[in-house]
Write a structure and sequence with these properties.
Elements: H1 2-15, E1 19-23, H2 26-35, H3 37-40, E2 45-49, H4 54-57, H5 60-70, E3 75-79, H6 93-98, E4 103-105, H7 109-118, E5 123-130, H8 135-148, E6 153-159, H9 162-172, E7 179-183, H10 184-190, H11 196-202, E8 206-209, H12 213-229, E9 234-236, H13 248-257, E10 258-265, E11 269-278, H14 287-291, H15 307-311, H16 335-338, H17 343-350
Helix pairs in contact: 1-12, 2-17, 8-13
Length: 353
């Protein structure tokens, strides 16, 4: 670790200006805080948290549609635990469960499929949230549902893909970004090649990083070296887990079940071809197509919550008036405080470490 830090300090001094590096992965954000990594960096090198928390970027509309399904007497909503407390426009799945809705926490889409087999008279709806890391497992469960004839297993998809969001941040021009720490687990699936267009079109270096503090320091060193040399390339620090091509089998099953579609991101708006919609061949397992849930919620009133700004790297959580007052992990106002990978939750737990 020490040799990475010494090199980082030399490079930062050589560059001689402020450098802003974005870790788009929520796991990287938590590692940086737990290890105190931010406090070790030179004053002119800053880490920004980006839109790498899948629960955080899920928009209100998706939660509202899940709530509409939960209110059906013939449906059971299955979801990862973090999503229970994410606020929709007027409610949350946790509140709906307290009012009698059948909402259950599962560890995977296969758990939901198993429940569908046990309760064939109910519609079992799995909330498909996540990036390229979780999408293959959901796709596999849908293919297995076809083979098993489990017609009551449905997926409400809010899957997102990371590279288009990274490009959207750069197109927006709101935040100056000098380099990206690319997510290791997403990259294990898609490989390193999908980031190449960011380097080519925006002249921004990308380094895929592992999740230990030493991994992140090595990746930061690699990014600073590129900045110092005026290069913009995709480099791979996480060679023990990521290859150039990624996991071809996982990519194949994703492509079989999902097709790229325009998708809404909390804080970033509509990003072209950044979502994964369910293909026609699997439409019978698409909760949106089968159940057509419509939110009855009124348009959301504007609040002082800065979750969207935090997800873009435009604001720190501490800039929000609600942070540590009205908004805490026990009483979250925004999604960034709900998820264990959310930037607000990290700032709340670890302060300015």
């Amino acid at each position: 670790m020490n040799h990475h830090l010494e090199s980082i300090k030399r490079l930062a001094k050589q560059i001689g200006r402020s450098i802003r590096l974005m870790e788009v992965c929520g796991t990287h954000t938590m590692t940086a805080f737990r290890s105190g990594l931010r406090s070790l960096l030179p004053p002119n090198v800053a880490l920004l948290s980006g839109p790498g928390c899948p629960v955080c970027v899920t928009p209100d509309d998706f939660v509202d549609r899940a709530i509409a399904i939960a209110r059906r007497p013939d449906a059971i909503i299955t979801t990862f635990g973090d999503l229970l407390r994410v606020p929709g426009t007027e409610s949350s799945l946790e509140r709906e469960r307290a009012r009698g809705a059948d909402v259950r926490v599962v560890y995977s889409a296969l758990d939901a499929l198993a429940l569908a087999k046990k309760q064939p008279d109910r519609k079992i709806v799995f909330m498909g949230v996540g990036f390229e890391t979780t999408a293959p497992t959901v796709a596999w469960a849908m293919r297995q549902a076809i083979r098993d004839g489990s017609c009551n297993f449905l997926v409400l998809s809010a899957h997102r893909t990371m590279p288009p969001a990274m490009a959207a941040l750069l197109r927006g021009g709101e935040v100056a970004i000098d380099g990206f720490l690319c997510p290791g687990h997403v990259s294990a699936i898609i490989g390193t090649r999908p980031y190449a267009f960011i380097c080519r079109e925006y002249a921004i270096p990308c380094v895929v990083a592992g999740f230990e503090a030493d991994d992140m320091l090595a990746a930061i060193e690699m990014l600073l070296k590129q900045v110092a040399e005026g290069r913009a390339q995709v480099e791979n620090q996480y060679v023990r887990g990521v290859s150039a091509d990624g996991n071809l089998e996982a990519q194949a099953i994703m492509a079989e079940v999902f097709a790229p579609c325009d998708a809404e991101w909390r804080g970033l708006g509509m990003i072209p071809l950044s979502g994964l919609g369910i293909r026609e061949a699997y439409r019978a397992y698409d909760a949106q197509a089968v159940l057509a849930p419509q939110s009855s919620a009124k348009p959301a009133k504007r609040t002082e919550c800065l979750c969207g700004d935090v997800l873009r790297g435009a604001k720190l959580p501490t800039a929000c008036k609600l942070f540590r007052t009205a908004c805490t992990p026990e009483t979250p106002v925004g999604a960034c405080m709900v998820s264990s990978e959310g930037a607000c939750a990290a700032y709340y737990r670890y302060g300015k470490a």
